[in-house]
Amino acid sequence: MSATPLEHTRPDAHAPVRSRTGMVRVGIGLLLGTVAWSMAFATATAVLLPARIEDIASDNKVTLLAVLTTGAALIGLLANIVIGALSDRTHSRLGSRTPWILGGGLSTALLMALLAAGTTFWSLLVCWSLTVIALNAMTAPMTAIVPDRVPAAHRATISALVGIGVLLGNAAGALLGAAFLNTPATGLAVTGIASTVLAVLAVAVAPDLPSTTNRPAAPLTFRSLTRSVKFPKNAPDFHWALWGRLLLVLGYFMINSYQLYILTDHVGLTKKQAAAALGINSVLFLATAIVGSVLSGPLSDRTGRRKPFVIGASLTALIAITLPLTWATPAGMTAFSCVGGLAFGCYYAVDAALMADVLPNQETRAKDLGILNVANTGGQALAPVASSALVSLGAGYSPAFIGAMAACVLGAILIVPIRTVR
Fold first, then answer.
1. CA distance to 1, 2, 89, 216, per residue, from 212 (Å)
2. Which domains, from first to last, does the chain contain?
3. What's the CA gap between 340 and 338, in Å, rounded?
4. 0.70 exceeded by the pTM?
5. For the chain, which residues score pLDDT lower than 50?
């Protein structure tokens, strides 16, 4: 495997799929691969790492969870951009994306086993940070497959499968986390193995075409790499999409990341009751989200519109967050999961197509999508910090709910000025 500058050659693996069979294989591969990384993220951040931190230092659990998720996400943010740029420049018989997805998947199993063995907060922080790098080695090249291989007219439909993959992964992660809540170390190790198996299946079902060149390879230097990961200039729609995504993810994960603590401290359930509620709510979230994805993805392709679906999803997420704020009961959290499922089903189905449509340079797809993925990792990194700061005001979780609602509204507003996409 070697790296060459893109100005010398355009990887031949980046050719749109034309046949129905090829499109189906790409869709299934993206579905499996997306479940692989999203399940690992969800199991760890939403359930098992909070549980491990509570076991280690229950008095400081809110603050320590914020430190752990923020530190790891900031590392993942940089890793996503750098790995995306390296993927754009990679040439091999396996293609430009497959080597990174396989490497990230295999590394995830090893690192989550080490994470499971951690017995102190600092060991958890180090192991989770390394795991996040491995997971980003899967996500950065995988997100580039939509603009690489899918014609523009079918992107929202295929993106719906990506969205379903995220939702399935989150639901599977929540179920795994709930099942192993009393033995989080075992749960982390099992999740790592499952994630790796799915990543291997993904590239087996939908492998890249060979990405090779007969031209001489120029050396990959630190200077050329840092030049390649700069934010695009003169691309306002790219930046509106970036900040809009960041705020929506921030708002939703301000509540989602603290579901375990909200159920126990805000709603008043025992830890055992909270685990059961998490499992039920994850299934309901998945069911409503699949409905939202299946309806919105093909409809977006048919109408040629992206913005109304993303804006509508942001406002629906706002409604979901208001429910447990005004209805601090198990039923309120169930309603949050159901309405939030509809919101994110619609959002994930169309958002990937919107992001692909606003890319300023089609030959640096993975790098630019890596920057857009900053919104995902950055939003998830900032969410626990924002929630922790607001909870520390001493008024319970209500300020966190209000802050999350404000972020969703701003996220919807920032999508409006985008001009190149309807």
1. 9, 9, 11, 11
2. 19-206+232-415 (1.20.1250.20)
3. 5
4. no
5. 1-13, 214-218
